[in-house]
Amino acid sequence: xxxxxxxxxxxxxxxxxxxxxxxxxxxxxxxxxxxxxxxxxxxxxxxxxxxxxxxxxxxxxxxxxxxxxxxxxxxxxxxxxxxxxxxxxxxxxxxxxxxxxxxxxxxxxxxxxxxxxxxxxxxxxxxxxxxxxxxxxxxxxxxxxxxxxxxxxxxxxxxxxxxxxxxxxxxxxxxxxxxxxxxxxxxxxxxxxxxxxx
Length: 198
Prior knowledge:
The chain has helices spanning 28-37, 41-44, 61-73, 79-88, 90-95, 103-112, 114-130, 158-187. It contains eight helices and no strands. Helix 1 (28-37) packs antiparallel against helix 3 and helix 6 crosses helix 8. By secondary structure, it is an all-alpha fold. It has one domain (19-187).
């Protein structure tokens, strides 16, 4: 009797496994991929969305945005950690098609596209809620009277719904602030725009 053992890491094989086989069909990275590919980044206000004739080819802004949305959903709050995930995490390797941007490129993308990122995060949360990817329920009822068992924490007024949206916006702000702070602490670089005081 022997233990179950894996394959020899040094063994070469004729046809290697494809990365796609490691990400199942119901994985959230597939939703991120389809969602980001459907966006008009220029219309959303992202910079550097058009290629220039000269210079080194840049990363596609959609790929960097996919990395940020993945980080947002998985609470990864550092450009260095996002860089590390792009090299070791199979989901991110699949999502970025084996690209691995460095942490400065990731941080610069966030710095240049802060407002547009907030809009995408907010829209993506709404999309996930609409697709019931989060375990929440929402029902809005007009002034009609219904007899039912209902607790105060399970029904919402328009103001309460607006407060929830405001909280989502604050969480997005907090996430981006934490990224900014963590990157500054790791690099000793301050990405705060000129004229803005912390």
